[in-house]
Amino acid sequence: MNQVSEMLWHRLTGLMPGELKQSELGWLFSPHRHLSLLARRRAGLIVNRVRLFAFLFAVLTPLWSIIDFVVFPFPLWSQLAAMRFVASAAFASLLVYYRSNGDLFNAYRAMALLFAIPTVFYVASHTLLTHYQLTGMSAAIGAGYAFLPFVLLGGLAIFPLAIAESFVVASPILICQAVSGYLRWAAMDWPAFTGAFWLLVLITGVAALAGICQLAFMIALVRQAIRDPLTNAFSRSSGMEILDLHFTMAQRSNAPFALAFLDLDHFKRINDGYGHEAGDQALITMTEQVSRHMRHGDVLARWGGEEFLLIMPGTGIEQARTAIERLRSSGFGQRPEGGPVTASIGIAERRADHVGDWKRLVELADQRMYAAKQGGRDRVVCGVPEPEPGPVVASGQHTPAPAANPALA
């Protein structure tokens, strides 16, 4: 299995050089392991393209009635025109009232509505046309209605979808086509039907390939946008987006939510004494150490310079303290002059600190980090720092820390 995965990976990297990492290969098949930020951006993009598709159909669907009026008898034209009016109104409603909320299931719902409207129109119009004996130009235009499924499946190509998602979206259309053939079993032109169905499957495959290529490109772009280029931790802007998302979820379910603000001690001495390359290496090593030992589900963001924010969803104050002590015991790397890299850390938690806004939670963790620096560095503060020296975990009610002092860096 590993050999097959390696072979597939090398084939894909040859087709899409520089776009994907090997750990992201599975993201092309299923969306379940996508990052929350990728899911939100993809959801927004899908809904926007659904609305674009809906706009085109809302405009073009009624315009085709002009051609129907020229070639079809009036009773058939009037019924088709009524169907087109209803379909156009449905597309217009989708365009006007549907908006993205960053939820992927909301985007799936938009796609389902987009594809359901023309599918229902196709079934209804196809059933109606079978009751009329059309000849000449009328028969040619009537046959054009049978191409609607091809248009729908070709439209899949504009969406950045994983393989599983493309299959789920395309399946109802393929099933409807197969059922329509079954209902006309006795009078079916089987060679023509088989060729048309095979063409539908082929278009589905090409559209799915276009979708996963879009998805691969989007994964690469989002990775570059949300990661700090030096440390590969999340950037500050993406960290703020993650904070907003998880804090809102914690508020809705009244769940715990903790933050740890980490600032490396005496980092300026490394830059001044050994150069910025040594400082960069210290940051990289620290990030690798934290990423290797932090819990699954926690998120590390570089907040600025040597400051990092560890976001811990579903974590109470005591759990956060325990997790941070475990990180400290594993170490943050070695200083160029010898000795371990240490950090001053402040912890804040939504429920324990009665905070109603994630920005205030960050401020509180930041203030406690400065309290840790003033208390002697290399320590964790969950509240008011203890007076005795040494690495301790303080507790108690919060009091605002003094303003930042450059000497504490």
Automatic annotation (TrEMBL):
Record key words, sorted: Membrane, Transmembrane, Transmembrane helix
Family matches, as SUPFAM superfamilies: Nucleotide cyclase (SSF55073)
Record flagged with keyword Transmembrane: yes
E.C. number(s) listed in UniProt: 2.7.7.65
Gene Ontology terms: cellular component: plasma membrane
Gene Ontology MF: a single term: diguanylate cyclase activity
GO biological process, one term: negative regulation of bacterial-type flagellum-dependent cell motility
Transmembrane feature ranges: 50-74, 80-98, 110-129, 135-159, 166-185, 197-222
PANTHER family attached to this UniProt entry: DIGUANYLATE CYCLASE DGCC-RELATED, REGULATORY COMPONENTS OF SENSORY TRANSDUCTION SYSTEM
Keyword set includes Ligase: no
Domain GGDEF: 255-385
Matches recorded under NCBIfam families: GGDEF (TIGR00254)
EC class of the enzyme, as a word: transferase
Protein name from the UniProt record: diguanylate cyclase
Region (Disordered): 385-409
Stored InterPro entries: Diguanylate_Cyclase, GGDEF_dom, Nucleotide_cyclase, Rev_trsase/Diguanyl_cyclase
